[in-house]
Amino acid sequence: MGDSSGSVSIDVERIFFGGKEHRVRTRHGPLSVSVYGDEDKPALVTYPDVALNHMSCFQGLFFCPEAASLLLHNFCVYHITPQGHELGAASISSDVPVPSVDDLADQVADVLDFFSLGAVMCLGVTAGAYVLTLFATKYRERVLGLMLVSPLCKAPSWSEWLYNKVLLNLLYYYGTRGLVKESLLQRYFSMEVRGNGQDPESEIVQACRSLLDERQGANVWRFLHAINRRQDLTESLMKLQCRTLIFVGENSQFHADAVHMTTKLDRRYCALVEVIYSSTILTLQFGLYTEESEADAEESFVVKLCRFRLVVH
């Protein structure tokens, strides 16, 4: 995949749209898993945020050629898509039991078993970060390291619980439209990326807006319902000994959770990176310095991931 100098040349569009799709049967229903890269390389398992799949959540990585090349030079990526969040998914029947967060974590273990994977690296965004953290607390021997973007770790506050209950009701009756869509976009993107009266909405937000139109409201309802009933992981965090790298935007509504999580993890194995001018840094379109280009910013993120992989190995 690379020449003798170690450089890597990769057709990003081929990789992003050419991954191998697998339908994995788990103890709590089937999941779609997309595999990118050489399966002989160390495994990186990803899990997206509410209402997203790997294409909408991690496209910032794969549409930046330098970042994609570096990432796939170091890992084989296993993208887990929450049930019913894959492209073209039909609405899940109301007869199918709604999973708990423990069920979602157990599904991750089933995916690892399906691919005969041992210990893996994990990359999750917000709700997906919570699922992977819970997975790490339940299956500690199967996680080499956690890379978490705007993670959740505490039970929802009363205000978050009530806010999510309103969203759940709107999702149930109206799907991912109107107020629900705008609330989700605020969850994902900073104001600068979403645009305002003076600055236009970025292309990545427009693309995400279109993808949300295609999402089945009932399927998103199931994932958000599980996350809104999550338990506090604080005590379990103290027992984790895998290395953990946390990224959080300074404007993220989940900033307090990320900082709280950092204080509860063993400081020998944990690092926090706060990113300026960013929200959940979902698209990875951010800069650690304001003069940094988008490509440089995305690559710097992946460089940290790859260095992190070298540390845990």
From TrEMBL:
Key words of the record: Membrane, Transmembrane, Transmembrane helix
Q: Which domain of life is it from?
A: Eukaryota
Where does the chain cross the membrane? 114-137
Question: Which is a Pfam family this sequence falls into?
Answer: Ndr
Q: Which InterPro entries match?
A: AB_hydrolase_fold, NDRG
Q: Which family does it belong to?
A: Belongs to the NDRG family.
Q: Tell me the protein's name.
A: Pollen-specific protein SF21
Tell me what organism the protein belongs to: Urochloa decumbens
Q: What is the lineage of its organism?
A: Eukaryota, Viridiplantae, Streptophyta, Embryophyta, Tracheophyta
